[in-house]
Structures are given as C-alpha cells and as structure tokens.
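thought: user wants a sequence for this fold. calling inverse folding tool.
action: design(structure=
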C-alpha cells in the first residue's frame, strides 16, 4: 500500500515538536490506507490490503506491527511483528467500550471507546493505574480525521507508537462496523 520511499520518509515520533498537532487522515483514495501526520511530516501509517476483517499493517519509523482479529468465544486482537507469527501483545474485550492490552513484556494498558456528552466519538488509552496516556478526538466529521493528543508525561513511553497505531486501528474498525456495539471490534473472521 505504501511504497518503500514513502516509508523511508517517515519521521520518528520522538522528533515531533510537541505543539504540532497529530492527525490521522485518509492517505490514499479508494484504499484502506491512513497516515498519522502533522502539516509537514508523516509519523505512522496503517493499511489493510483487503477488507476490514483482514490483517492490518501498522508502520512507524523503524518499527511495525500486524493487527489480526482472532477468536469467536473469547474474541481478541493479536499484535505481532510483520512476517512473524510471534505475538507481542494481545487485546481482549473487558466490557462495553473497554479492552485490555497485555504486552509480552508485562505492561498492561486500558482502552476506552465511546461518545462524549456532545455525541463526539472518542478513544483513549490509559495506564494500568488509570492515568490518561493519549486520546483520539474527531477533528472533521466530513473526512473522519482524528486528532491524537498525548499526555505530556507519556511522550517517552516505549509503547507509545504501538498505542497510537492500535488505537487508530480500533477506531477505524468500529467506524467500519457501522458503529455497532464495541464488541463488533472483536468479531472473528
């Protein structure tokens, strides 16, 4: 979906100036391809090669993951390295609009998804202790672009790029499932 040259031009997230807003936007017309960008630079990509139920590939400068829905009785999303069958993290549904990401190294993060009082869609990652790490907020209903706000104390989190790409994956799956219940995010193939 993205060329080698496009991938080489991606900037590492830690080099972004904090005041520059990050926005997930549709990158390629008629393709399931998205970019996390500022006005000038691209920091991450996410694309599906087939339909929304197929694996998705997320890339950041020097790293990447594959996201795959799995299971019917205990639905989850498996996170692995591209081209490898080794699971690096697993996201499991914990309740309506909530899930738990368990990383292989032992870190846990909580996902929340829903609508606020004004009816705006949001997504958020929190630490195991419940501290906000980052949020996704709609910036344009016309284009479905979403802004990403990172809490200032979490800019150096090693899993930040994974949380940003997986969070966008979850919001896109929810939108493509026509906003059905959050459990729709986890419907297996």
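)
observation: tool returned 189 residues.
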């Amino acid at each position: 979906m993205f060329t080698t040259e496009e991938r080489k031009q991606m900037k590492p997230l830690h080099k972004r100036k904090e005041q520059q807003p990050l926005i997930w936007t549709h990158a390629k017309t008629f393709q399931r391809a998205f970019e996390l960008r500022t006005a000038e630079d691209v920091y991450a990509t996410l694309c599906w090669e087939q339909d929304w139920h197929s694996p998705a590939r997320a890339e950041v400068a020097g790293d990447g993951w594959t996201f795959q829905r799995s299971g019917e009785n205990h639905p989850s999303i498996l996170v692995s390295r591209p081209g490898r069958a080794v699971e690096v993290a697993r996201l499991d549904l914990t309740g309506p609009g909530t899930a738990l990401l368990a990383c292989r190294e032992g870190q846990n993060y909580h996902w929340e998804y829903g609508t606020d009082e004004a009816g705006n869609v949001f997504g958020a990652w929190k630490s195991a202790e419940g501290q906000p790490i980052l949020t996704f907020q709609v910036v344009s209903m016309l284009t479905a672009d979403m802004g990403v706000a990172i809490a200032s104390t979490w800019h150096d989190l090693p899993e930040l790029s994974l949380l940003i790409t997986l969070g966008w994956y979850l919001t896109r799956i929810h939108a493509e499932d026509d906003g059905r219940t959050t459990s729709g995010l986890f419907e297996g193939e």
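thought: summarizing for user.
answer: Here is the designed sequence. The chain has one domain: 4-13+20-178.
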